[in-house]
Design a protein that fits this description.
single chain, alpha+beta, 2 domains, four-stranded antiparallel β-sheet, 4 strands
Length: about 130
């Protein structure tokens, strides 16, 4: 198996070690592989969706919060957005829950563009089948 080096903050490394120790993973690599598989499954479900769909996104922002570029991305895709909620975590960071309806390919592009923003720490998506 190839070896891949990953750079991360000290707090991310602490979280990685906690998952390794507390969740029963055999190694740090096991934690990272599991996270990768979960992200791939999430990505494939939206990528493979067809037609009109509803997606719930949880967008987590970095220490400095949401910036103007993130706002521009949301404005670009605002016709798809049906609801948003912005909140602050107990650790001082912020996140948003975004509900969007539209063509699956456009929602996939929206998610991809959000993930590419420097201030975005993570984007989790849930394809709603209702």
């Amino acid at each position: 198996m190839p070896i891949v080096a990953v750079s991360m903050s000290k707090s991310d490394l602490v979280a990685l070690d906690e998952l390794h120790n507390d969740a029963g993973f055999p190694s740090r690599s096991g934690v990272i592989r599991h996270a990768l598989y979960a992200l791939l499954a999430e990505h494939k479900s939206l990528e493979q969706a067809k037609g009109q769909v509803t997606v719930i996104m949880i967008v987590v922002y970095g220490e400095r919060g949401k910036d103007d570029q993130c706002n521009r991305v949301q404005i670009k895709y605002s016709p798809l957005i049906t609801a948003t909620m912005h909140a602050h975590s107990t650790q001082g960071g912020c996140f948003e829950v975004v509900v969007a309806n539209g063509e699956a390919s456009k929602l996939h592009s929206f998610t991809k563009e959000l993930r590419s923003q420097r201030q975005v720490t993570s984007v989790q998506t849930c394809l709603v089948e209702a």
